[in-house]
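Researcher: Good morning. I'm working through a list of sequences from a screen, and I'd like to move beyond sequence-only analysis. For each chain I'm collecting a predicted structure so we can compare shapes side by side. This is the next one on the list. No need for commentary yet; just the structure.
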Amino acid sequence: MSRLTNDQQIRQLANLELLARQVVEGFVTGLHQSPFHGFSVEFAEHRLYNNGESVKNIDWKLLARTEKLFVKQFEEETNLRCFMLLDTSSSMNFPEKGTSKLEFSIYAAASLMYLFKKQRDAFGLCLFSDKIDWISAAKSTGAHLFYLYAQLEKAYNEPKANTTTDITGVLHHIAQEIHQRSMVIIFSDMLENGMNDEKLQALFAAIQHLKYNKHEVVIFNVTDKQKELDFNFDNHPHHFIDMESGENIKVHPGKIRNAYRESLLHYRHQIELKCAQYKIDIVDANIDEGYHRILKQYLVKRNKMI
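Model: Good morning. Structure tokens for this chain:
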């Protein structure tokens, strides 16, 4: 049965492009009204002519008005290749009420795609769980944008049940397959069942593989901070179900809160240390904080690469 039970969500998903445009335009307006400068957010249709290149695309009318040589810039031209990896494993369906981590990631990815298109960056998408479920090439056309929006809507409408994550295997595959020196953006809660020291080392090796192949990497660690990090549950017995394995346990949150938080924070700290070692940006993406931080992080990384 479809999860489209909320009228507002139905209206939003009826046109992902409209939602993305609203998010991006609000973000750009905020940048222009703040002292935060240095980002390329003016989407020009021309660029200066470079000596030696073909003259076939010179805008002669603009030359007559400005006495400067400008070249018409077409959709096929691209500045950067961006590749987004979206974790669609069952743990991303949390929380079941309100906006889930998966839904948040889909909205964020749609907004980034809209900004990629405006920046004339080529962009691709990979949906994964315990394997790569779907992957596209990186293109910069309008048709490609709506093709990927259709895949995001499908992922929204068909959340997976009892599906685990193998982010390690996926990262190794992506490191080999995509064009060198791409920006790789990962949306994941970075949670795998049975994560131990051996699995952590394997994950770090996969992250290092991306850097070895000259990719710039940003990990958006998607979380419901209130529930997953702070473990903010009422102090009475709760029945918890593992969304990936289906295993369940009945516990009193107050009795395990400190041990749970200590274990989770240790795991997250280990990942953060390795990401710092390999110069990989890992950013907390709290589902309650909106999308502007995500768009800003992309522009920060983009400006370093261009």
